Amino acid sequence: MEIPVYGLSNAREWIYVGETDNIQARLLEHLEETNTFRTEGLPTGFSFELCPAHDRVARQRRLIVELEPACNGRMRRRSEPAHRGDFNSMREDS
After folding, report:
1. What are phi and psi of 8, to 5 degrees?
2. What is the CATH number of domain 2-93?
3. Euclidean distance between CA atoms 68 and 54, whole angstroms
C-alpha cells in the first residue's frame, strides 16, 4: 500500500512536510487551523508523492532535511532563509 507524503508551501518557502493515510482529511484540517505558524505562512500550494507505507516516515524525514520547511521541528533558525527545493518534481501551486 502507498501512503501520501505531502508538503505545504508559498512562493518563498516550504512551510510544512507531513505524511498521512488520508490526504484530503489532513489538508482540510490544515485549512481549518487558525493562529498557527502553518497558517501564518500563508500556504498557497501543496505537493504530494505516494511512497510505500513502510518508507513514509523515513521519506518525510528526508524531505524535512532537504527542503527545510519552516514548521517541522524548527530544524533551522527562523532568521535563516529557506531555499525552495524540488519536491520530487511533483509541484502544484495555486
Report:
1. -105, 140
2. 3.40.1440.10
3. 23
Q: Which residue has the cell 502553518?
A: 38
> What whole-number distance in Å separates Cα of residue 48 and Cα of residue 94?
14
Q: What is the mean pLDDT of the chain?
A: 80
Higher-scoring residue by pLDDT: 12, 90: 12
58 Cβ contact partners less than 8 Å away, ≥ 6 residues apart: none
Distance separating alpha carbons of residues 50 and 2, to the nearest angstrom:
5
Residue 74: predicted pLDDT: 54
Partnered with residue 92 across adjacent β-strands are 46
Rounded distance between C-alpha atoms, residue 87 and residue 89, angstroms: 5
What is the torsion angle, in degrees rounded to the nearest 10, for the CA atoms of residue 56, residue 60, residue 66 and residue 68?
A: 170
| Residue 30 vs residues 26, 55, 79, 89: alpha-carbon distances, Å | 6, 23, 24, 23
- One-letter identity of residue 5: V
Q: Which amino acid is at 48?
A: F
